[in-house]
Amino acid sequence: MDSKVLTYTRLYSDSSGESRFEDIKIGLADRGAIGYLSAGFNAKDIQFRLNKPDYDYDFHNAPARQFIILLDGEIEITTSLGEIRRFRGGDILLVEDTSGKGHRSRNISQQPRRSVFIPISDDNT
User: Fold this and answer.
1) 18 inside domain
2) pLDDT at position 44, please?
């Protein structure tokens, strides 16, 4: 069966409590007419979020292990080690830094930003 790959960014805390980025590739299997699908994740619920244009949230931890799917806008995330990455509509993040030094996030474009939060079970690897 033919397969494709999708990449998302993982934000996690290392053993010293520092937040770090990691790019994760996930395989997608050809399912014919319906397209390419990954293996499933056990989701707990789903939330929709709208941030104000001036969103600028100092260092904090993720409230849960969750996927964040950006629908529009542009955000900048800074790790505790000072690495900065920008994410735009269509990007996917898996935030797992629920402990440690956390990360900072802020809107880059001065417009409201919409996203979807999908907390996942701890048994997803």
Assistant:
1) yes
2) 85
| Predicted model pTM | 0.91
**Contact criterion met (CB below 8 Å) for 67 and 93:** yes
Give the mean pLDDT per block of 10 residues along the chain (125 residues).
85 98 96 94 94 96 97 97 97 97 95 96 73
Residue listed under structure tokens 């770090």 = 20
Greatest Cα-to-Cα distance within the chain, rounded to the nearest angstrom: 47
CB 99 within 8 A of CB 63: no
Please tell me the predicted confidence (pLDDT) of residue 3: 67
109: which DSSP letter?
S
Q: Which residue segment(s) compose the domain that 21 sits in?
A: 3-119
84 forms beta bridges with 78
| Residue 124 placed within a domain | no
Q: What angle do CA 87, 88, 91 make, to 5 degrees?
A: 75
44 belongs to a structural domain: yes
Please report the pLDDT score of residue 70 as a whole number: 97
The domain that holds 15 is classified in CATH as 2.60.120.10
